[in-house]
Design brief:
The complex is a heterodimer. Chain A is of the alpha+beta class. Chain A has a single domain, classed as RNA polymerase II/Efflux pump adaptor protein, barrel-sandwich hybrid domain (OB fold (Dihydrolipoamide Acetyltransferase, E2P), Beta Barrel). Chain A has four helices and nine strands, in the order E-E-E-H-E-E-E-E-E-H-H-E-H. In chain A, strands 1-2-3-9-8-5 form a six-stranded antiparallel sheet. Helix content of chain B is 20%, strand content 33%. Chain B folds into three domains: 140 residues, Gyrase A, domain 2, CATH 3.30.1360.120; 125 residues, 2-Layer Sandwich (Alpha-Beta Plaits); 83 residues, Aminomethyltransferase beta-barrel domains (Elongation Factor Tu (Ef-tu), domain 3, Beta Barrel). The longest helix of chain B has 13 residues. Classes of the chains: A alpha+beta, B alpha+beta. At the A-B interface, strand 4 of A face loops of B. Chain A: The glycine cleavage system catalyzes the degradation of glycine. The H protein shuttles the methylamine group of glycine from the P protein to the T protein. Chain A: Belongs to the GcvH family.
Chain lengths: 126, 378
């Protein structure tokens, strides 16, 4: 069972969101999602400067068996994407909460339904 | 392999073991099967470079015996099974009267004791269909078609280290066992039908045993293979291994809508064999059609980019649809996405320029290559 870090918030689309520093938060997918995908072989991320909208797709993740949409957990402007994960998508599997982060976003809108770590754990085990 | 309520997935004799290994399970043709134990890419590479251990107990075994067993199989299948020698196996197909492929099969001629004994191995998804067709086609033959789906567990050990691993557990003459041959033996004290077959493009063995012995054999192979780097492998890597090896999968490359000639596998149809067989007339017409007005051709595609083609995606040339992807995956061996696709004959030659796959709206360039993508060095 994956251990979901307490300091993050989570979407029901299995993205995690860090605490914002100066209004900018980091986004990734959870270990649960990475395990469900299997080996990730390709990630398509939003471009720096693009605006993403909470609950809407902003990229995709390809694994051996399938392709999955990446959803933005919040609304805002993308300030940085993780070039390491573009070059080596296996980071999503090996370190989903750390080196496998996907992009950073300057938050302009946060939905009401983000989950705490305990709520997300209950959500995926329920 | 006890029977379960209809609708609930069936479980193999190794089910508890898979769960104890932390396997991710998947529903496959009504069976709850291991998809992967860890990284499917690592499992794939283990089979290419060392060895992998598979549970394939979902495959459908049917025994055909009796004095007329050879004649029945020659009537029911498109291949010539009467000339198959005892101890050998053959890849063949069963077709409808209209030539459509019902399933692709491996048929083993186990022995010629009192009567010939054949073991027909069907795909899990088609096992019932094949059983019913064989039973129906047996009318008038002095032969018995027996449902042995629950009589066997099937383990496979595949990869360059497989012969050494198996040799450490059996006295059977593996050196004398050729590709597509099988012999009865004892492995780790377990009575086993040892077959040198597989679906990975590597050397290896498929081991048919009593389900009650499956766990004992699995554990023995695991221990014997540990120093050689053998790992348990799920169906996910089995699919990418067979795709790299250019092997068709029923439901992807093969279907009732296609004859063996449409699938580029006309060689399995033996018009010269004795007696009539189901589909002969339609297949003769299909062979002529394929010669004079070639249908789409099954080709390999290798991506220039990193996006992965999937079954059903259109193949394009100059913006026009010229075919369709049947199987696609990231290839661990090539390090690029690959696919098999049926394309119009005019675009099927290796090196044909300007071919693309429509990947969710984006036209990604692909190179047309001859199959297989991967061939092991002998």
């Amino acid at each position: 069972m994956s251990d979901n870090p307490q300091h993050l918030r989570y979407s029901k689309e299995h993205e995690w969101l860090s605490d914002a520093a100066d209004g900018v938060a980091t986004v990734g997918i959870t270990e649960h999602a990475a395990n469900a995908l299997g080996d990730v072989v390709y990630v398509q991320l939003p471009e720096v400067g693009a605006t993403v909208t909470a609950g809407e797709t902003c990229g995709e993740l390809e694994s051996t068996k399938s392709v999955s949409d990446l959803y933005a957990p919040v609304t805002g402007e993308v300030t940085e994407v993780n070039g390491d994960v573009v070059d080596d998508p296996s980071l999503v599997n090996s370190a989903p909460f750390e080196g496998g982060w996907l992009f950073k976003v300057r938050i302009s809108g946060t939905p009401d339904d983000l989950l705490s770590a305990d709520e997300y754990t209950a959500f995926i085990t329920g | 392999m006890s029977s379960t309520a209809s609708g609930a997935p069936r479980r193999t004799a190794l089910d508890a073991l898979h769960r104890s290994l932390g396997a991710t399970m998947t529903d496959f043709a009504g069976w709850d099967m291991p998809l992967r134990y860890g990284s499917e890419r690592e499992e794939h590479l283990a089979v290419r470079t060392r060895a992998g251990l598979f549970d394939l107990s979902h495959m459908g075994e049917i025994t055909v015996t009796g004095p007329d067993a050879p004649a029945l199989l020659n009537h029911a299948l498109v291949g010539d099974l009467a000339t198959l020698a005892a101890g050998r196996a053959r890849y063949t197909m069963i077709c409808r009267a209209d030539g459509g492929i019902l399933d692709d099969l491996i048929v083993y001629r186990l022995a010629d004791a009192e009567h010939p004994v054949y073991l027909v191995v069907a795909n899990a998804s088609n096992a019932r269909t094949v059983l019913d067709a064989l039973t129906e086609r047996a009318a008038g033959f002095d032969a018995v078609v027996r449902d042995d789906r629950d009589a066997y567990a099937l383990l496979a050990v595949q990869g360059p280290a497989a012969p050494g691993i198996l040799a450490s557990l059996t006295e059977a003459d593996l050196d004398g066992l050729k590709y597509y041959a099988g012999l009865p033996g004892t492995v780790a004290g377990v009575p086993t039908l040892i077959a040198r077959t597989g679906y990975t493009g590597e050397d290896g063995f498929e081991l048919f045993v009593d389900p009650a012995d499956a766990e004992k054999l699995w554990q023995a192979l695991t221990e014997a293979g540990a120093s050689a780097g053998l790992v348990p492998c799920g169906l996910s890597c089995r699919d990418t291994l067979r795709l790299e090896a250019g092997m068709p999968l029923y439901g992807n490359e093969l279907s009732t809508a296609l004859t063996p000639f449409d699938a580029g596998l006309g060689r399995v149809v033996k018009f010269g064999k004795e007696g009539d067989f189901v589909g002969r007339e339609a297949l003769a017409e299909a062979a002529e059609r394929a010669e004079q007005n070639p249908p789409r051709v099954l080709v390999g595609l290798v991506a220039e980019g990193r996006r992965v083609p999937r079954a059903g995606y259109p193949v394009l040339a100059d913006g026009t649809v010229i075919g369709e992807v049947t199987s696609g995956a990231p290839s661990p061996t090539l390090g690029k996405p690959i696919a098999m696709a049926y394309v119009d004959a005019a675009h099927a030659a290796p090196g044909t320029a300007g071919v693309a796959v429509d990947i969710r709206g984006g036209h990604e360039p692909f190179e047309v290559v001859a199959l297989p993508f991967y061939k092991r060095r002998k």
